[in-house]
Write a structure and sequence with these properties.
Strand order of the largest sheet of chain A: 2-3-4-6
Helix content of chain A: 25-40%
Strand content of chain A: 15-25%
Largest sheet of chain B: 9 strands, mixed
Number of helices of chain A: 4
Distance between the termini of chain A: 43 Å
Helix content of chain B: 25-40%
Low-confidence stretches of chain B: 1-10
Number of domains of chain A: 1
Oligomer: heterodimer
Number of strands of chain A: 6
Shape of chain A: elongated
Order of helices and strands of chain B: HEEEHEEEHHEEEHEEEEHEHEEHHEH
Largest sheet of chain A: 4 strands, antiparallel
Strand content of chain B: 25-35%
Radius of gyration of chain B: 21 Å
CATH superfamily of the largest domain in chain B: P-loop containing nucleotide triphosphate hydrolases
Mean pLDDT of chain A: 86
Shape of chain B: globular
Radius of gyration of chain A: 20 Å
CATH class of the largest domain in chain B: Alpha Beta
Distance between the termini of chain B: 46 Å
Mean pLDDT of chain B: 90
Largest interface: A-B, 40 and 50 residues
Low-confidence stretches of chain A: none
Number of helices of chain B: 10
CATH architecture of the largest domain in chain B: 3-Layer(aba) Sandwich
Chain lengths: 153, 368
């Protein structure tokens, strides 16, 4: 597990991280998500190709907390992200370069390290109705679905 | 059953490219045939700085013009985009049988196998309309089986085609309202029912101008700008009760039982509509139940979460590109939760106050 790596499930998933908050959209399911603080930090590491073990080590370096709690928190978030089809497992090694993280760590000073709180994936499903497809019950002679007078939203 | 797939899985190859071009041409030829009986009828509009020509087959679909009339332009110049419109009911010209399978109807009406970088094809399940665009020829066709269109199509006409084409010009259609004054405007974003229309309509009797209350157009002109797209407001039953002065101005009162009330703002408030404003802030409305309206600073990410999904999930083919556009736009602006009071008269002063504060304090474009 610790050598396992993931990639963001593009093009099904699009995402942006702004001021330490990640917004993630699953374009197929209609669900969207937000990750803050350590969750956003972990998302950024996964996106850059870090393995599970590398993520756990880097979170341990950047946050105050015991290793077991951090390992469990990282593991549970990664499971959730997979279950929501936001990340997919990849085979083989990728070139993960920790120096890319310069400036993105919450703090380099051990006295200023933020406390580790288990990351929470906030999920929003209120847009799913916009993706619900109108079942095609009736078609005309040319095969065109008959209009559905109900509004789309 | 159509599939829930959003992103077409087939990589556009030569066969798909030629099939899509041939399909576009066949629909365009049907439009031209329909015009032989009815004669041409043309209208021209300036949308987001581009001249859009509407070429009708007879007068039956002219109801689609009302939401765009505030942007009417002279018809002397060549349009940047020509949209041909016809319906089978009034012209007697049938549409050809659909050439794709039932499983090719994807979410948001995208037609699998008939979408390439050049050709865009979508079906609107509600109205039964087909929209096709040839980006290379700057030519689009809108076909509807019937000239009697649903109120939401009349209120937001040609949304799919305009979204596709304007995106190619660097303009993003967004599910957001906008109001403002000489200091600039505020973009008001959020899902349906969040308070966008209420906010925009509450400003009609104030000193603030109206840009739009449901869909607007975003661009960059060294700084973020919002362009007006439709002057139509759609009000649900509760909103009609809250704005009794608008009741005599509703255009579809005879169908109030089955439709939202439709109001064409520029017909009743012609001097209130602004066609373009620089954007100074983004507001995310929220109904609180408190009497007073107030602002609370929120994060850009929270604002993006309110703005982007409700835009992307309404527009065929919208996805990563639209999301990145909206993120870039939001990053440059201060963002606030607009906590709406039950006393609607408290809304405009809060927005005017914010614009004045931004104007005087320089609280505007964020540093990247």
């Amino acid at each position: 597990m610790s050598n396992q790596r993931f990639r963001v499930n593009t093009p099904t998933v699009t995402h942006e991280t702004i001021d330490g908050e990640a917004v993630i959209i699953n374009l197929e399911s209609g669900n969207y998500y937000s990750l803050m603080e350590v969750g956003s930090f972990i998302w950024g590491l996964v996106e850059k190709g870090a393995s599970v073990g590398e993520v756990q080590n880097l979170v341990l370096q950047a946050y105050q907390g015991n290793a077991a709690d951090i390992d469990r928190g990282v593991h549970e978030l990664l499971i959730q992200l997979q279950q929501e089809n936001l990340i997919v497992s990849i085979d083989g090694r990728v070139a993960f370069d920790p120096s890319e993280l310069n400036g993105t760590l919450p703090s380099n000073n051990s006295h200023e390290k933020p406390l580790f709180n288990p990351p929470l994936l906030h999920k929003y499903s209120d847009m799913q109705e916009l993706l619900l497809l109108d079942p095609i019950h009736d078609v005309d002679d040319a095969g065109w679905p008959k209009p559905n007078p109900d509004p789309p939203k | 059953m159509p599939t829930s797939q959003v992103v077409p899985s087939d990589i556009p190859g030569k066969e798909q490219a030629s099939r899509s071009v041939e399909y576009f041409q066949s629909v365009y030829e049907l439009f031209k045939s329909s015009q032989q009986e009815t004669g041409p009828l043309e209208r021209s509009y300036m949308i987001g700085g581009y001249r859009i020509g509407l070429n009708f087959s007879g007068p039956a679909l002219l109801s689609l013009n009302r939401a765009l009339e505030h942007l009417a332009a002279d018809e002397d110049s060549t349009p940047d985009l020509s949209i041909c419109l016809w319906d089978s009911e009034s012209t007697g010209q049938p549409m050809s049988p659909r050439p794709w399978q039932e499983g090719d109807f994807l979410a948001r009406g995208v037609i699998q196998g008939y979408n390439t970088d050049r050709i865009h094809t979508a079906f609107q399940h509600g109205s039964g309309a087909v929209s096709v665009l040839d980006l290379e020829r700057n030519l689009a066709v809108f076909w509807s089986p019937d000239w009697r269109l649903p109120y939401w199509e009349i209120g937001s006409p040609l949304r799919t085609i305009l979204h596709w084409w304007l995106l190619s010009k660097g303009l993003q259609l967004v599910h957001a309202a906008a109001v403002g004054n000489s200091s600039g405007g505020v973009l008001i974003g959020g899902k349906g029912g969040s308070g966008k229309s209420t906010t925009a309509l509450a400003c009609l009797e104030s000193n603030l101008s109206y840009v739009g209350d449901d869909y607007t157009l975003l661009g960059f002109d060294s700084r973020p700008v919002v362009h007006s797209l439709y002057n139509s407001a759609k009000l649900n039953g509760d909103q009609v009760k809250r704005f009794p002065s608008l009741l005599p101005k509703i255009s579809n009162t005879e169908r109030s039982a089955e439709e939202k009330a439709l109001l064409f703002v520029s017909e009743h408030y012609p001097t209130k509509v602004a066609t373009r404003l620089p954007v100074r802030a983004i507001l995310v409305p929220r109904v609180t139940g408190l009497a007073e309206t107030r602002l609370r600073r929120i994060s850009v990410a929270m604002t993006l979460a309110a703005l982007a999904p409700s835009t992307i999930f309404q527009l065929p083919r919208a996805g990563d590109e639209a999301f990145k556009f909206l993120a870039t736009f939001a990053r440059q602006l201060p963002c606030f939760s607009l906590e709406l009071g039950t006393d609607l008269s408290t809304i405009p002063p809060v927005i005017e106050g914010l614009l004045a504060e931004i104007d005087s304090a320089g609280l505007c474009v964020r540093e990247e």
